[in-house]
TrEMBL record:
Its main location: other. This is Major sperm protein. Central component in molecular interactions underlying sperm crawling. Forms an extensive filament system that extends from sperm villipoda, along the leading edge of the pseudopod. It holds the Pfam family Motile_Sperm. It is found in: Cell projection, Pseudopodium; Cytoplasm, Cytoskeleton.
């Protein structure tokens, strides 16, 4: 049963943060590469702390071992300096898929008692 083995590592490029540069009067999109470094198939899902400003596409998926995906993180136009951006971040969560599961993302993988790992990528806004 896959759930008894902790999920392995993933790699993200960039590895520690996402940077958006001014001006902020138009939508910006930044691409993240997510690589499954483990030996098992994983399901992954992104969350954001600010749903109205930050979007992620695709927001979830499945990666086989050593497979990668390109994810678009977008930042909608906003009034820089007039809104609180200190806590903005995207978080990727991942877990092993059950043995024999189809390669189609299922939210319930994250709701059972299997181990879920998480990586935070803070958003930095350059004026």
């Amino acid at each position: 049963m896959a759930q008894s083995v902790p999920p392995g590592d993933i790699a993200t490029q960039p590895g520690t943060k996402i940077v958006f540069n001014a001006p902020y009067d138009d939508k910006h999109t930044y691409h993240i590469k997510v690589t499954n470094s483990s030996a098992r198939r994983i399901g992954w899902a992104f969350k954001t702390t600010n749903m109205k400003r930050l979007g992620v596409d695709p927001a979830s998926g499945v990666l086989d071992p050593k497979e990668n995906a390109l994810i678009a993180v977008s930042c909608d136009a906003f009034a820089y300096g007039q809104e609180d951006t200190n806590n903005d971040r995207v978080t990727i969560e991942w877990t092993n898929t059950p043995d024999g599961a189809a390669k189609q993302f299922r939210r319930e993988w994250f709701q059972g008692d299997g181990m879920v790992r998480r990586k935070n990528l803070p958003i930095e806004y350059n004026p």
